[in-house]
Amino acid sequence: MATNLLVSILTLALGAFVAALPHRAARTWGSQRLARLAPERRASFVLWYRAFGIILCLAGLLLAVDSIVLEFAGK
After folding, report:
1. Predicted confidence (pLDDT) per residue in 14-59, tens digit
2. Over the chain, what HEC string results?
3. How far apart are CA 44 and CA 27, in angstroms?
4. Kindly report the CA angle at 48 between 45 and 50, in degrees rounded to 5?
5. First-to-last C-alpha distance (Å) of the chain
């Protein structure tokens, strides 16, 4: 359970960072691709980074809830 919670906390933190600051995250992890895109395509690229961050947050939240519920259901 502790490992699952640790992974879910890290996933939540990374997802929150990407969702809150998608342009900065895109510059960090997709800098070469972001630099090559035309200005009108950059907005879409950053929007997809935000969507990825939200999905990552939800996955971390679901993992945490699943770990906690299974821990208490097993006792």
Report:
1. 999 999 999 899 888 877 888 888 988 988 989 998 999 999 999 9
2. CHHHHHHHHHHHHHHHHHHHCHHHHHHHHCHHHHHHCCHHHHHHHHHHHHHHHHHHHHHHHHHHHHHHHHHHHCC
3. 14
4. 115
5. 13
Question: Taking each helix axis from N to C terminus, what angle separates 2-20 and 22-29, rounded to the nearest 10 degrees?
Answer: 100
The domains of the chain are located at 2-73
How far apart are the C-alpha atoms of 55 and 24, rounded to whole Å? 18
- pLDDT of 75: 62
Residue 66 has pLDDT above 90, yes or no: yes
* pLDDT at site 26: 87
The span from the CA of 23 to the CA of 45, in Å, is 9
